[in-house]
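Re: Re: token formats

Sure, here are both.
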Amino acid sequence: MVVCTVGLVSLAELMAVTLRMQQLSQNSTQAVRLAQDKIDELTTLSFATDLSVACGGSLTADVANHNDVPGNGAGYRRRWVVAAGPDGDTNLREVTVRVIPDVRDARTASTYSLTTIIRGLPVAC
């Protein structure tokens, strides 16, 4: 009876860990998807006219035109930084998007950052 009880308690603990890991994996996947969605959106904008791709922003604080709360990503905030592209090429921008979970979800979600280079019409940064 004791051996059976120990085995069942161990199995219950294993199931709890598995559920937490599955939730963490699901939240990470959602964060990656939200970061990629923002990169895709910024890629379609004009460097000359859209403030979202103007140089600037912050990954640690909300800056006007460089942060949002995605409609399909309840529980997350996105911030992005736009910088001059490599070698000073005015056709390119280096963009870093950070997806930050709400405090209440911090146990099962982590901050995720994605950096890429996007191309547009030449405008100095």
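Second one below.
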Amino acid sequence: MATSVLRPSSSVPESWAPSFSFLAIGVACVIAGGLVAAATAPSPSEKGSWAAAYLVLVGGVAQVAFGICQAALAPRRPSSRVLATEFLGWNLGNAAVIAGTLIDVQALVIVGGILLVATLALLVWAVRSATVAPGWHTWTLWTYRVLVLVILVSVPVGLIIGQVKS
């Protein structure tokens, strides 16, 4: 069985096993975002709404997409070290951005942003030589690239907006 931070059941194909950690934590972030939205609904706040959306979209949906797309596109499965670095970089970066934003510590937000950018670079590197046949793999490759680009542009924009607001 492939090494991953979390292990899937034996019914998961070997080639998809490394993406299980991304999928599991991504789904957990979507659920957490929903819980944050529900908990802050009685007295909405800018930070509560932001945290809920961030958890769902960046911590959850993006992470699930990265796990699925990398499993589908990487010409060979990245090493356990690369996968663990991606997984930890993405989740620690997101945790730092969320915590830094909620407690107003810009240095923590910046460190989280740097971790996210470094992780995005690693995610792109892992599928750098992907060649795909026409069909859904082409769609997956372009979705992956666009998602990485959108988040890559969003990180510095968010950091700049955070600096201007503080």
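The two ends are 48 Å apart (CA to CA). The chain has a mean pLDDT of 85.
- S.
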